[in-house]
Write a structure and sequence with these properties.
The protein is built from twelve helices and nine strands. The protein is elongated and about 70 Å long. α8 links the parallel β4 and β5. The chain has two domains: 101 residues, no CATH class; 203 residues, no CATH class. α1 packs antiparallel against α4 and α5 packs across α6.
């Protein structure tokens, strides 16, 4: 059904779809500047190139089928080999267009001087009827440049880690709990980058600044209601990795939000037929993150307190 609907849009509703994109002159300018459309042999315009890319990417067509469809529909006269070459040169341009649309839906926060933030996450792709994960897409979106800086496709065994991305000094990687691992954090620190990462209670060993064991559950239990608190910690070292000084920020959820989070955990564990550690249910009543950047530490303290006080956390 999705493939059929996509074909209808690409074939019969293309002028309507173009109204959601930058003006034609802007498409032409960006396609030329990015190197996506230098020669126009077989492809007369930037919007034609975009139409070919969307037909191939969203309609379930092979390169040969896309080229045949384009000729029959009087869109373009191009071979499958030439189409492949065109699409390879258009990757940065297509990423730029995607970044523009994402920025329209989620405008970046006001600039904080030299604060350069990269959002990092992954999503899964499954074959029809598959019971597991077949592929995983890893992506880095730079809020400073409003551009996708890195996309990587792996099989289902390719885990989430900051090691997949190369950040520059002064940049800050923001990731969810899947990225809270020592090796990935060290890969950022060694390049001069920083991080803000959400934690599970057990996935990242922490110590006090003087090297003693840090009990994160004890810290969480002492939190006041509706007020974020922070403390200095360090990521515990290994034989190969040195300790990383950092700041832990945490806030207690409202009781309604905590119950919703616990119910979600229980449903997920029941689906996977796994036992639940009582600390997992208890920690679902809190939000806690780790950062090395002092500016992000201050912003996170204020933001978490504001979110919980307004009852907007779910």
């Amino acid at each position: 059904m999705f493939i059929m609907d996509s074909r209808i849009i690409i074939e019969y509703e293309w002028p309507y779809l173009l109204t959601f994109l930058p003006p034609e002159e802007e498409l032409e300018r960006t396609a030329k500047e990015s190197g996506a459309l230098v020669r126009r042999r077989g492809v007369s315009s930037a919007k034609t190139l975009l139409r070919l890319a969307m037909a191939y990417g969203f309609c379930g067509l092979t390169l040969r089928q896309t080229a045949a469809w384009a000729k029959v529909a009087n869109v373009a006269d191009i071979s499958d080999v030439a189409l492949l070459k065109r699409l390879k040169k258009a990757d940065s341009w297509l990423g730029m267009l995607l970044a523009i649309k994402l920025a329209e839906r989620a405008p970046p926060p006001p600039s904080k001087g030299n604060l350069r933030v990269c959002l990092i996450d992954a999503t899964t792709i499954n074959r029809p009827g598959s019971k597991g994960t077949n592929w995983r897409v890893h992506l880095c979106f730079n809020l400073d440049s409003l551009a996708i800086e890195h996309v990587e496709l792996t099989d289902g065994r390719g885990g989430e880690t900051f090691k997949r991305f190369t950040l520059r000094p002064g940049e800050i990687a923001i990731g969810d709990r899947g990225y809270a691992h020592r090796a990935g954090l060290h890969s950022l620190v060694t390049t001069g980058a920083d991080f803000l990462v959400r934690l599970n209670w057990q996935n990242l060993p922490l110590q006090t600044p003087d090297g003693k064991s840090f009990d994160i559950m004890d810290f969480l239990r002492k939190l006041p209601d509706a007020e974020a608190r922070g403390t200095m910690v360090r990521v515990a070292p290994t034989k190969e990795l040195s300790p990383i000084p950092a700041r832990l920020v945490a806030v207690r959820k409202s009781e309604a939000a905590a119950e919703a989070s616990r119910a979600k955990v229980m449903r997920e564990r029941a689906r996977k037929c796994r036992n639940i550690d009582p600390r997992t249910l208890e920690s679902a009543g809190y939000v806690f993150v780790l950062t090395r950047c002092y500016t992000m530490y201050c912003l996170t303290l204020r933001s978490l307190t504001s979110i919980v006080s307004a009852g907007r956390w779910n």
